[in-house]
Each structure stands twice: as C-alpha cells, then as structure tokens.
Amino acid sequence: MTPNRIFLAFLLSLPFCALNSSAAGSMAPGAGRSANVLTTVGGNDAEIRLIDIYKDIGAYRIAQAREKADALVAAYPYFRLGQLVRGDLLMMIARPINTFGAVLDAPTDKMRDLRAEAMVRIQSLQQRPDPELIPKAVLQVGNDQKTVLVIDAKRSRVYVYANDDGNLKFQTDYYVSQGKLGVNKFKEGDQKTPIGVYAVNSHIPGQKLPDFYGAGALPLNYPNEWDRLNGRGGSGIWLHGTPPDNFSRPPLSSDGCVVLTNPDLRALYATTEGGKTTVLISSDVEFITKAAWDKEHQAFSQLIEDWSHDVESDDHSKLLANYSSRFRSGLGENLHTWFNRQQKGLNNARGVTVKLSDISMFLYPGEQAVMVGTFTQETSIGKNKNISHKRQYWVKEGAGWKIIYEGTA
Predict the structure, then answer these.
(1) Which of 176, 184, 218, 285 is the most exposed place for a label (fewest CB within 10 A)?
(2) How large a percentage of the chain has pLDDT more than 70?
C-alpha cells in the first residue's frame, strides 16, 4: 500500500475528515464570512493544537502533523486523545492504518470514549455559532452580571458570553463532559445532568477538594425552584475540573456534573461570580438574529413592567390577574394564601411605588413556554423603603403569560 493510500484510509476513518472541506462552518448563517473560523478557536491551547494537527493530516502534511503531535504531548502529557493521535501518526511509518486509534489490543471501551471525544470536539468547532447571533433563551442579563455561561449538551460545549452594557458578546467556548446517561436529571443517582437556568453559588478552590475535582469547582443551585415544583431531586451539581493525571474526560462520563479541563475551569473562575453568574444548561441551544432577539426581549420586558405597574396600583384584582391559578409558593401555598400573606405584610398601604433593577430574563430550556426573571425590587411606601431580590417563573396560559412562582432570589 502506498503512503497516499495509507493516509487516505486513515482519513476516511475519521468522521471529522471534512475539517478542511468547504462544508466545514458554523451552525448559523453568516459563518462563511470568516475563512479562519476554525483557526480562531477560543478554547484552550491543547485543543487549538489538536485541531491544527487534524488540519495537517487532512492536507496530507503528515511530517508537520507528527512534529506538532510531539509538541502537544510534551506540553500536555495527560491529554490521552493527543497521545492517541500521536500514536497513530507514528504507527503510519510501520504499517497501514485503517481506523482511528489503531492501538493493538487496546480496551474497546477506552477507544470508544476517545473516538467520541475526538468526534464531538471537531463537530462542535465545525458548527460554532456565528458571533453575531444570540442564544434565544438569553433574553436579558442583569447589569450586576459580568458573564453568562450557555451549555449545549448536544455539542458538549459551554459558550461564554460577556455582558456589554446589556448586549451579549461571544467571548470563547470550551469542551465539556456531562452525565453518563445524558441530560434532564430527575432524581438522585440517575447519572444525568439537569436542564435549566442555574446560578453559580460559590467558588471552591482545588486545594480544598479531593484530586478528583482538579483545579476546583463552581457549585450550582440545583435543584432550583422550578425543579422542586416539578418534583426533581438530587443535589451536588457542579462545574469542576479533572484529576491531575487526566487532562479531559469523554463526553458522557460524569455522575451529573459538568466537567472541564483544568485550564478551562481556571479561565471560568476569572469570569464568574458566586451568587450572580447564570449558567444555562440546554439540550440543544438555538441561536437567533439580533432583530428576532429584540422582539422577544421587548415582549418579556413589557410583561415585567406591566406587573410592576399593577403592584403600584390599589386594585388587587388587577394585580392578581398576573398570576396563574396553579401558582405555588416556595412554602407550597396556593395563590390565595400566598397573596393574602403578601398584602398583610404591606398593611394595606397605599401610594406604593416600585423600582426594578438588575433584571435578567431567560426562556427555560426544555420547556415549551416558561420564562424565569430575576431582579432587585425597591418598594417605597412614603419615606419607608424595602429592597428585595426576587425571582419569578412565568408560564404561557392561552394567549397570555402568568406567574406560577414568585419568591426571593
């Protein structure tokens, strides 16, 4: 077999061999504007190097690929996928290669995991979102939030967006692993990653954790209010790193947490804030144009604005019209019991004024029509002021939207 035929057999075994083809591009319109879409990856250095090696293989630059593979494993000796690619390149010298990961007598499950990681890394980069598009679910990020993290389970990717004076700006993205049995967590021990809108509770440095968690952890507030209303259980869902002797994990490999490489986890540390940063986990993120986003944003902003005006009114029936008959409070109260308790706290005061700030709004992933809004509410009654942090869940009922949960955030 000639060298070219060996190389061709090797390339044809890779599902991502189209890396250098014209078909490689973004999942969204407009991707073709940048010829360097795959060389301007915002991920970690190891992944950028790996993609460069794939591109050399696809262009039959095998000598250059071997040289870069040597450098990759020297810099990241525990990057097993990098070691595998280097091994295949070296094996080409001695014998024909007709499959990816041609290690003799290698454990079948380990090869399957490495092939899955290779495939998802390449496919997610070929389908990177156009930076001019916006995740549909992110309707608004509060002024008190610097970034929002959008996790796409289908692509095993976390997209990092900066809050630029109310506008979302795509910053970078990272490969992630998720639950062994996928997403949509329902109970403790089901080895699934939850779908929903969560907040980073805190930062836990690696030195305070077992080696299993690597560089550290970002615990999430799972289960949130919507999870509890829908009977979802479990706990301990974190974004965390990997052990020192394991650079990355297969796409489906955790007990429910979202796992990043240690360099990527450290990078997220610098952009997240405990109690503020939102993490949106979706099975498949949808991206829309700025014009479409503006329309959605305006509609939901109007909902919350109208509600605040009704709070200021003295007409209880008008205010109650904002709420669903299926309403349940965090204490399990129905609408009548909860509403009467709220009004009792106001002592039937009149002349109430309400000012909202730091408003964030998200369409809830995995749901047909649910929106969660969080904001700071300043309520004034004469000279008395009260500041509270609230969260509301709105559901679509008929042609309108109603609040099904309201409580402190």
Answers:
(1) 184
(2) 86
